[in-house]
Amino acid sequence: MSQTIANQSGEPGGTPDGGPPREGCSLALLSGVLGAGLLLFYLFDPATSGGFWVCPFHRLTGLYCPGCGGQRALHELLHGHFAAALRLNPFAVLVFLPLAGYAYAAYALRVLGGVRVPGVAPRGWQVMALLAAMALFGILRNIWGPLP
């Protein structure tokens, strides 16, 4: 026999003490962490500030991985410099950040309003295509160098 817990408004989904549902708390925590991270990337330039992630692949090989320049690109995007961000890492700007933003928005809409948008649940061939595109980008950026 299942028992449904009602929140203060009488709707199912609350916790026994009438607090917010667990997903609401996880969304608040996720939003706080993302907000703090974006604030750090806005205030501090990874190119000149210490304490940011250094790519171990680049440090060991001297070659650029598909993610190299992504932190600096995010900093530039947050300051409205789209062209500079594209020069630093077009893959992160055009593929990774939009996918991450869509996944966050889909989750937030579902938790806050019950709105269901198509989630980011790619099929196996789509994951392989994304990985192949990422590998190809990593190879080509080491052949041609950074964009002008």
Structure description:
The chain is mostly helical. The protein has a domain at 66-148. Helices cover 60% and strands 0% of the residues. It is built from six helices and no strands. The chain has helices at residues 22-43, 56-61, 70-78, 82-88, 90-113, 124-144. Helix 3 packs across helix 5 (90-113). It is globular, with a radius of gyration of 20 Å. It starts with 21 loop residues before the first helix and ends with a helix.
Question: What's the structural blueprint in terms of helices and strands?
Answer:
Elements: H1 22-43, H2 56-61, H3 70-78, H4 82-88, H5 90-113, H6 124-144
Based on the model shown, name its key terms:
disordered N terminus, 0% strand, mainly alpha, 148 residues
Q: What percentage of residues falls in helices of 4 or more residues?
A: 55-70%
Radius of gyration: 20 Å
Shape: globular
| Largest sheet descriptor | none
What is the chains' assembly state? Answer: single chain
How far apart the termini lie comes to: 65 Å
Low-confidence stretches: 1-10, 15-19
Please report the number of helical segments. 6
Structure summary, number of beta strands: 0
Q: Report the sheet-strand fraction.
A: under 5%
Pattern of helices and strands = HHHHHH
Structural class: mainly alpha
Report mean pLDDT, rounded to a whole number: 84
